[in-house]
Automatic annotation (TrEMBL):
The organism's place on the tree of life at top rank: Eukaryota
Protein name: Trafficking protein particle complex subunit 10
GO cellular component: cytosol; TRAPPII protein complex
Residues in TRAPPC10/Trs130 N-terminal domain copies: 1-240
InterPro entries in the cross-refs: TRAPPC10/Trs130 (IPR045126), TRAPPC10/Trs130_N (IPR056913)
Source organism: Leptosomus discolor
Gene Ontology BP annotations: early endosome to Golgi transport; intra-Golgi vesicle-mediated transport
One Pfam family cited in the UniProt record for this chain: TRAPPC10_1st
Amino acid sequence: AGDQNLFTSLYPTLSQQLPREPMEWRRSYGRAPKMIHLESNFVQFKEELLPKEGNKALLTFPFLHIYWTECCDTELYKTTVKDDITKWQNVLKAHNSVDWLIVVVESDAKKKNKTNILPRTSIVDKIRNDFCNKQSDRCVVLSDPLKDSSRSQESWNAFLTKLRTLLLMSFTKNLGKFEDDMRTLREKRTEPGWSFCEYFMVQEELAFVFEMLQQFEDALVQYDELDALFSQYVVNFGAGGKCL
């Protein structure tokens, strides 16, 4: 969300550098941590893309929402940007989407055209005060991202670390909820109207997720469980039971 032209100018560098460094992925239930590379698909913010109640998909809705701005004018912030961020956050709250990040892009060229901008009244401070409350880390600064300098590279590295961390946190949380919902659905298999085909699609999506992360053993576990569940129903049907 936010300044689409700004994001478009940074996207080639972002998409190239994001998966370059691996991240340690820690999960619950005593599972061993694994190193993974994160590749993300960025889409323009639209309310209709947010998950609906009862949505069983994991790969078709956005996990982390990012607002981009390079505003460095306090008056422009007051009259335009602040209202835009407020509307964006209100939509997220309405859909219980709590994973977000605001990126303020700063450039020396733009700053030179402005006067009397004190650190305590900077746009970053205003955004943190207006929107971040106790989550000041949810507003980050990206300094001169298109400049070839050590300062620019340091800024990129810090931003990418933050982005990878938030992406992985959000993904892990959504994956855990998806697995919980899948287990609840599986436990209802003895109830009338339960559909193996519908359940197959849910667990198959989980297998796709692990395959996407190159965790092939975990993906195979999902298919093994589906095979065992299907075999059980075949045996039940052969013994005169009901095959759903």
